[in-house]
Amino acid sequence: MVMSGLTRSSSVHNDHSGHNLSSTTTTHGHHPDQSGAVAVGGCGLTPVLDYTAEMERYQSFANFYTKTNVNMNAVNSMNFPQSAKLAHITAPMFPGGRLGVGVAGVSPWGCHDNINMNMNVNAAMLWGRKPPVHQTTPLAPPTTHPSPSTTHMQPHRTGGVAGGQGGEGKQHARHGGHASSQGQEMHHHHGNNNFQSGYAAANHMTKQGHAHQDMLSLSNRSSSGNGGGGGVNGVNMSNFPAGMLGLPPGVIVMAMGSHNNISDSSHFQMTTNHNQLLSDCHHVNQTNPSPCSSTSPGMTSGGQGSGASKRKRKRCGVCAPCRRLINCGVCSACRNRKTGHQICKFRKCDELKKKAGSIQLESPPSVPSGEAFRWFF
DNA sequence: TAACACGTATTC
DNA sequence: GAATACGTGTTA
């Protein structure tokens, strides 16, 4: 029932072409914007016109969500464009590979083309400050995009890439998002397609690739988290070089078990353009507390003095809250942004909610392996 | 026990 | 230096 209410804006249009529609009842197929191979394909993103209504709807949902244990995937699938938080462009939030994780399972704008949503909307919705760089593996520069690996993604990119729309993504990322009181600004940005920076989109195109949302969020991931958001539960890929699988760049490989050389606190790896596995450097392994690139000293607060064991943990980047991109703007953390120093409650990493040191391996997979393999074949 | 407040690490 | 966010002590 929640979702039905959240997908009602089924005909919001993109204003890439300069059309600013005043009605939300227009159908996609009849709008002239849809005729061409416009960047955003058949799924337009336009400002949510009825912003007030959207906000009310969201707040009511937020209340509901607060009182119920709603599957975070469902929550994530909405993105809450009506959030009071300005959604700035930022680099992907995915750990290690900085993958721009597709978030939406269902477009808040009712777009049924989830592929387009992945490649455009989600990329565009990335926001906030730039995530920390946890590895030294450089991102492929935009100029490397027309690579065979990139073209491999083409079948998933109906409508092509909305190129040349942005360019200011980095500036936005730098300014991060001021939690509340910027709803209007968000609207403004949305309306001007500033979400879609060429920079961000480019990176997403390269890194996200086949990391379809389904692989990332639509598995039977329970609220218990445990990093099960990979969507490939039950597949032991730990001994599979990504190259052997012929996986395209951006594919998330979930490594089960701990008998590999990869940090077993994270079972996600991502293929690069060269089909190498990017070890998830984001997590601090319990047995090897040294993240790949972190040079920070041990955490000093708390006076534990045990060095690396007290290092600040990072968001896992794969759990539902982490994949949420927009602050709700209504929770206490958002409201007390300045004094609370806390991330939005809805974005608080599941892993960080757990007590430090209680990190454990995934529970036995709940998804049959055959089900898991469907993501790959 | 959850919410809050604050110190502090991290990043830009 | 500002913004963000994690860790932890305090409070309701």
TrEMBL record:
Q: Where is the composition biased (Low complexity)?
A: 215-224
Which biological processes are named by the entry's GO terms? Wnt signaling pathway
Q: Where in the cell is it found?
A: Cytoplasm
For this protein's source organism, the top of the classification is: Eukaryota, Metazoa, Chordata, Craniata, Vertebrata
Q: Name one Pfam family in it.
A: zf-CXXC
Keywords from the named record:
Cytoplasm, DNA-binding, Metal-binding, Wnt signaling pathway, Zinc, Zinc-finger
**Superkingdom to which the source organism belongs:** Eukaryota
Region of interest (Disordered), ranges? 1-35, 132-232, 288-311
Please list the GO terms describing molecular function. Answer: methyl-CpG binding; zinc ion binding
Q: Does the keyword Protein transport apply?
A: no
What InterPro entries does the record tag this protein with?
A: CXXC4/CXXC5, Znf_CXXC
Descriptive protein name? CXXC-type zinc finger protein 4
Q: Name one GO cellular component term.
A: cytoplasm
Leader sequence segment: none
Bias (Polar residues)? 1-12, 288-299
User: Principal place where this protein is found?
Assistant: cytoplasm
Q: Where is the CXXC-type domain?
A: 309-350
